[in-house]
Amino acid sequence: MIRVLKLVLLTVGGIATVGVLAGLAWFGTLWAGYNYKWGWVEAPVRYKLTFSVEVGGVTYTGSTVVQVTYQLIPRWQMISQPGIAAIYRGQAGCVKLSDGKMLCLMPDAGYPVYGKDRHSVSAIADRLLSVDGSPTGPKTKWNRIYASNATTVAGSSDIPIGWLSQMIVLDDPANPSSAHLFDPEHPERSLGPGARFLGAQIAVTNEPLSHDIKTVLPWLADPAIPQRLSHPGDSILQENHGEPLYKAYFY
Q1: Concatenated DSSP letters for 120-153?
Q2: pLDDT in tens, 26-61
Q3: Containing H/E element for 41?
């Protein structure tokens, strides 16, 4: 009887040990697969965003080149479904006007503006650019870009104002507290009488990524200036229902 009991205990213990080892092996494989990107598909696409305004009869154009990496992680690494992502990398596009003001486009859609939808670069591309040979221009339905078809993305398109990323004006580029929201439908409110917004465009490009934002706005690189840029009484807080401006919105 004792021998039988020992045999049962050894058997149960062996099964439990094998189960634990198998579980550790499985989670080790998951960890290694995820960290070493086994079977991942990554397709980077660069987009150039350009915008123009007219102030005092002079046209000013700003632009930025950003990158979206479309990613597909195998199903077995995500347990129940494949991991799909569009990872943004880039910075704001800024142009300085003759009166010293600076107009900036924030293409990562990080800055929430009260009463307006936020549109990321990847979402704008889904709606406006050619995928698998489709025409460019505004579409009523999403034409989703994934890692599997990102190499087919091509062309350029005007960006409807309703799909435009958020924009701000810095009355004094050296002072982030001077920021105002920019309304492309009413540019005169922040740029003065007679100002006109001439439009914005998105295009697939092979140009290098923009990288000089901290040179254009040195306070972004100053550790003495906190991440939150807005202070009580700043105009942008009043214009945006208390939503502050952060350094992270620029890159």
Answers
A1: -HHHHHHHHSBSTTPPPS--SS-----TTTGGG-
A2: 566 656 666 777 778 999 999 999 999 999 999 999
A3: strand 41-55
